[in-house]
Amino acid sequence: MSTGLHLNSHADDNAVAPHRRSLLAAAAAALLPLPALAQAPATGARIPRNVVATVAMVGDAVREVSAGRIAATTLVGEGVDPHLFRPTRADIARLLGADAVFGVGHRLEGRMGDVLERVRAAGKPVVLMAETLPREQLLANEDYPDAADPHVWMDPTLWGNAAGSLLPPLATIAPELREGMADGLTQFRARCARLDAYARDAVATVPEGARVLVTAHDAFSYFGRRYGLEIESIQGLSTEAEANLAGIEALVAKLVARRVPAVFAETSVPDRAVRALMEGAAARGHRVALGGNLFSDAMGRPGTYLGTYEGMMDHNITTIMRALGGRVPPRGLYGRLAA
Ligand SMILES: [Zn+2]
């Protein structure tokens, strides 16, 4: 197969890379359909290393940067909330036995901190992607003042930058990847740039008054900052504290006053409180739609488009902008979403 994106050999790679990069840049700028970009990079031989990722977004970044040659084991599965995830004994054994461990950090994996420290103390590479970004680019974390808001993957440009932190540890455990990884990172960042351009174009079609994103927990602040959406959530940055009634009442009042058309549930958080918002608004004569189910802290099923970072973000951007009254393609950026 020849997508123009896969790595046959270093020589071939070097020969086509500059041309390919300029194509990517041109496509990103022009927002042309470019379905090949949405596909996982074709792979050279899989390199057998025991790499563990805490959450799927991180595991996907490892796959992207290694051009599909390293498959990380992901601990937190589909629809599971990493804030509450408690590693089992088997997970702890897996972490302690890994060649390298990758996570997000800034307290996203609130109950894995101790074991990550143990892995680090054993001399293994442990990289927490969000913690490698300059602090001034990060938002505050009201739940944990010693940390920043961990949900950095919601801004594709930040996530593409953070993916650079994977290169040194991967090169340490798999030196044969060294050359291919720079190209894998370039391609991943080009895809992040394309998601970013898609979101910026889409939000421009949302009526200004409707640029309010109401979700179950506060995972979307980076998304809101990047795309100019006001963010409201029922729970805070972590899902550990319960939603409170006064907070829900205040949000209902806001929905009604602003005539916000839709609110959103999340695949990894129960939707009870979101439904309470909708009922509260309806009781005051304002019908709020359920805009859809967003991927906040977990991705879709592994092996599907929604089980990739790119698919997750395409789904989120498309679902949010459509429900808020914007114009987006019915099946998303690459035509790969369910209509
Ligand atoms: Zn979260």
Describe the structure using short key phrases.
339 residues, alpha/beta, Rossmann fold, 2 domains, four-stranded parallel β-sheet, two-stranded parallel ribbon, 8 strands, 40% helix, 10% strand, globular, disordered N terminus, binds zinc ion
Structural class per helix/strand content? alpha/beta
Instruction: List bound small molecules.
Output: zinc ion
Enumerate how many helices there are, as a single number: 11
Average of pLDDT: 86
CA-based gyration radius:
20 Å
> Strand-and-helix sequence, N→C?
HEHEHEHEHHHEHEHEHEH
Q: Return the CATH architecture of the largest domain.
A: 3-Layer(aba) Sandwich
Basic shape: globular
Gap from first CA to last CA: 28 Å
Helix proportion: 40-55%
Give a written overview of the molecule.
With 339 residues, this protein is of the alpha/beta class. The chain folds into 2 domains: 41-200, 3-Layer(aba) Sandwich (Rossmann fold); 203-323, 3-Layer(aba) Sandwich (Rossmann fold), CATH 3.40.50.1980. It contains 11 helices and 8 strands. It has helices at 10-30, 56-65, 89-96, 113-121, 156-162, 167-173, 178-203, 221-227, 245-258, 272-283, 309-323; strands at residues 51-53, 73-74, 100-103, 126-128, 212-217, 230-235, 262-266, 289-294. The strands form 3 sheets. A 4-stranded parallel sheet has the order 2-1-3-4, with helices on both faces. Strand 5 (212-217), helix 8 (221-227) and strand 6 form a beta-alpha-beta unit. Helix 1 (10-30) packs parallel to helix 7 (178-203), helix 7 (178-203) packs parallel to helix 11 (309-323) and helix 9 packs across helix 10. The radius of gyration is 20 Å and the shape is globular. It starts with 9 loop residues before the first helix and ends in a 16-residue tail after the last helix. The structure holds zinc ion.
